[in-house]
Amino acid sequence: MNENTIKVWDPLVRIFHWSLVGAFGLAFVTAEDFESLHVQVGYFILGLVAFRLVWGVIGTRNARFTTFVKSPGAALAYVMDLVRLKARHYVGHNPAAGLMIVALLVALVVTSVTGLMTLGGEEAQGPLAPWMANFGSWGGEVAEEIHEVAAFGTLLLAGLHVVGVLASSLVHGENLIRAMVTGKKPAPPPPPSPFPSGAFGGRRTVGADPVPHTAHGTAAVSNGPRRATGER
């Protein structure tokens, strides 16, 4: 097992990730019977998303959106290669994971905002209550329907994300869940030498002349005339 590791995820990314996992789970199970707690957790989630959007611009290299957000075509190509067990290894997020992160952030924003709209329209509470009063009771009802659909959509995306993490871990032989805890991943193997092997299987010395070959074998190099080994 390769004991060499490299630092990939900074502490803020890891704290954000696991805080969001716990907060979303708590918000989901408290939606029906613990409204006050549900609302407070919703505010917390909205704050986490706001932090991640800022950190995705000014954060460390592997946390920045410019590092891992690729086109949908690149994400699809990665998934197809993953199915064929020949996907390229990425130190940070792969293209499919990058696209999933964007989708999850958008889904969380929609869920959080429609939750605030529901709170303002049905309970006349929260920062959006004055604005939602313009729509009457139907505004809160519509917002609640969208809120529930967005919440279940976010849960579906999270499930697909877990499946992708497990699949990538198996194909690339690394534990991505542990990496998001420790912030470290196994160091990739060193790239192959740009110089071909020498005559005896070793590395060719830079600047050395190659040993010439003939139709009958390898030419012997000496101070005198060359003759091909194996000639009779």
Topology diagram in text:
Elements: E1 5-7, H1 11-29, H2 35-58, H3 65-68, H4 72-83, H5 95-123, H6 129-132, H7 136-172, H8 176-182, E2 184-186, E3 213-214, E4 217-218
Antiparallel strand pairs: 1-2, 3-4
Short description:
It is built from 8 helices and 4 strands; from the N terminus they run βααααααααβββ. With 232 residues, the protein is mainly alpha-helical. A two-stranded antiparallel ribbon has the order 1-2.
Q: Report strand order across the widest sheet.
A: 1-2
CATH architecture of the largest domain: Up-down Bundle
Report the helical percentage: 55-70%
CATH fold field value of the largest domain: Fumarate Reductase Cytochrome B subunit
The profile of the biggest β sheet is: 2 strands, antiparallel
The average pLDDT score comes to: 82
Distance between the termini: 51 Å
N-to-C series of helices and strands: EHHHHHHHHEEE
Number of distinct beta strands: 4
Number of domains: 2
* Secondary structural class: mainly alpha
The stretches of 5 or more residues where confidence is low (pLDDT under 50) are 199-232
Radius of gyration: 29 Å
Q: Please name the fourth-level CATH homologous superfamily of the largest domain.
A: Transmembrane di-heme cytochromes, Chain C
Q: Quickly name the level 1 CATH class of the largest domain.
A: Mainly Alpha
Rough outline? elongated
Count of separate DSSP helical elements:
8
Beta strand %: under 5%
